[in-house]
Fold this protein.
Amino acid sequence: MKQKNYILVLGAGGNIGGKVAQELLNRGAQVGVMGRSRSRLAQFEGKAEILEGDFNDDAFLHQALQKASSVYLTVPDDAFADVSTTAQRLAHLLQNTAVTHIVNISNSIVKKSGKPTKLVALEEELNKNLPQHLLHLRCGNFFENLNWGLHTPYLPNLKLPYISSYEVACIAAQHLQQQGFTGKQVEAILGERDYSMAELAAAAGVTYQQLPYTPENSHFYKPFNDGDFEVEPRPENYKPGTDKRFSLEYFLKHDLQVSFV
Ligand SMILES: NC(=O)c1ccc[n+]([C@@H]2O[C@H](COP(=O)([O-])OP(=O)(O)OC[C@H]3O[C@@H](n4cnc5c(N)ncnc54)[C@H](OP(=O)(O)O)[C@@H]3O)[C@@H](O)[C@H]2O)c1
């Protein structure tokens, strides 16, 4: 059943998954792209195997995992209620498949309000339950978050790591194809440097306005503003990629979808 170099990309209709799949195709890999809607996978018609279905459907996911030797894993939000159950379910569905290597998307914000963030909690459960080689990519905030709105409750001068989704995708694709990692590993992908919202707004040509908390968002923003969070440290020898698509300037010019002026 195993087809060497067949790589399954979960969430391929999304921001990172779509770029991972495209990068793998550019490198000549055989790719399966998975998502709930064929129309959101249309860019891969005729280039990759399209697997239309839901992550939460056991039979579908088990079938989708059969041929792959590497898997790009992004666990959807609706599977986070109990990360332990999700990890056990994945371990069960991966049994008797050819999958040896998994690259899992994670978060550079490792703790908030004294607790591991959900993606880091998931890492631990995956490490406990899965026999495969696992690499967790602890990513900084994606530049794409700016498309949700540039004015937020973040303090104007609070700095956080920001990263291009192209850079994350290139790194993920390389690992998926090369299968050079063993055991359970973590890699920080933090971008060139940290940015404050005031800096990001200035780069987009506007003055940042800090918004008040709402009842819905205060649990997300307040721990940041109170300093009650932990970020994966930038390794001393950290070298950000140099491709021009990896820069903030490229994002602002090509992928910013909203006007802030
Ligand atoms: N934003 C950040 O700053 C940041 C930083 C670090 C890590 N992350 C993490 O990175 C991950 C990926 O982010 P992204 O920007 O690529 O997200 P995204 O654009 O929302 O993509 C997620 C994909 O998952 C698919 N999906 C959702 N529910 C599904 C289900 N039940 N079954 C099958 N597919 C499902 C969606 O496709 P369909 O709707 O077509 O099925 C979508 O294409 C997330 O886990 C996020 O938490 C984000």
